[in-house]
Amino acid sequence: MTEPARFDRGHTDDLMTFLAASPSPYHAVANAAERLEKAGFRQVAEKDAWEGTSGGKYVLRGGAIVAWYVPEGAAPHTPFRIVGAHTDSPNLRVKPLPDSGAHGWRQVAVEIYGGPLLNSWLDRDLGLAGRLTLRDGSTRLVNIDRPLLRVPQLAIHLDRTVTADGLKLDKQRHMQPVWGLGDDVQGGDLIAFLEEAAGLPAGEVTGWDLMTHSVEPPAYLGRDGDLLAGPRMDNLLSVHAGTAALAAVASGASTPASIPVLAAFDHEENGSQSDTGADGPLLGNVLERSVFARGGTYEDRARAFAGTVCLSSDTGHAVHPNYAERHDPTHHPRVNGGPILKVNVNNRYATDGAGRADFTAACEAAGVPFQSFVSNNSMPCGTTIGPITAARHGIRTVDIGVAILSMHSARELCGADDPFLLAGALAAFLER
Ligand code: ZN
């Protein structure tokens, strides 16, 4: 029997707040943690000894978070049900010696993170956000959320080939933002500016992980407001939905049949190989320590992992009205049509038939429609943390997500209903 929907447009409203407040992976996990705290979850430190109590807990490491809820009566071998996602998005990131400039312009030297649609970063008002590391090793989040930088596009009058040949951007020469005027560029200017903005003494910041973001807030779009335009939906949309789903399931948890988990990793956009990426040991360590903290043995760990399922949630491609031929002719996911099940027989996605059945049951329980996505055989297929999670931990994994347009643009586009339909499906999956 289908229950009344747990999530509605209020979820999408909250997603807009979450997106705007999460210009970096570090902000995203802090905002996820804040929502989990309100649901009764408490942070545990990796360096501490863990106790095997029931309830909600989470681990923060850099731009990654793993949160789980142990129901009353769960055994050491109780399997996990995991929602996986990633916190990072393609953008422009500050280089180690950022202060540069030419011809009277002050500029910030940036590297290209992941695979952004470079053109989408031109002529936007950009802020700067991320993490500052202080002399004592502590970190401080920073967010200059006002127009601070801009990558100015060359005027068409000076680029007569652009109309015929399209825009060609060189990542090194053409993507360096300006942030003011002056011929007296000094090494240390940018960090001194950020120290002052963060209320820190000069010279206190000795390390940084900083990135640009569009300061334009997310907005409902379209005749009927049934679309949502905003940044970083790939993949904060899933991080937010997974957080909401875990909080909802924990508040009503009564069945000890499984332990619901949220695992949101950094560095998906450049291959997941880091201490906070899906190809690192973070998730496996947390799950194992949870088993052992409850008095489990290695046998219990093996039994728990054997019964564990992961839903890897990420964005996918909705059918594009101007480029329908790029999609498979019979698989045309539509926005607001519900979450998508992603299939690729060459394991770019981890979904198999058993995984499809698991996801089908979750969607049916939630009363949520879903759609199928597969690539056109002549087009390359993206990938996710799904195959990595399956291979690294030996966990059955299903790739799903939400169909959007303009993936990897500085401003993406999705349906306004799909985020809460996804959250409903994730919650039903976590409590199966
Ligand atoms: Zn993604």
UniProtKB/TrEMBL annotation:
Cofactor: Zn(2+)
GO molecular function, a single term: aminopeptidase activity
Keywords, comma-separated and alphabetical: Aminopeptidase, Hydrolase, Metal-binding, Metalloprotease, Protease, Zinc
InterPro entries named among the record's database cross-references: M18_aminopeptidase_2, Peptidase_M18, Peptidase_M18_dom2
CDD domains: M18_DAP
Highest taxon of the lineage: Bacteria
Enzyme class: hydrolase
Keyword flag Signal: no
Keyword Protein biosynthesis: no
Residues at which Zn(2+) binds: 86, 157, 408
Xref: SUPFAM superfamilies: Aminopeptidase/glucanase lid domain, Zn-dependent exopeptidases
EC number(s) recorded for this UniProt protein: 3.4.11.-
Coiled-coil parts of chain: none
Family the entry assigns: Belongs to the peptidase M18 family.
HAMAP family: Aminopeptidase_M18_2
Protein name: Probable M18 family aminopeptidase 2
Taxonomic source organism: Streptomyces djakartensis
Gene: apeB
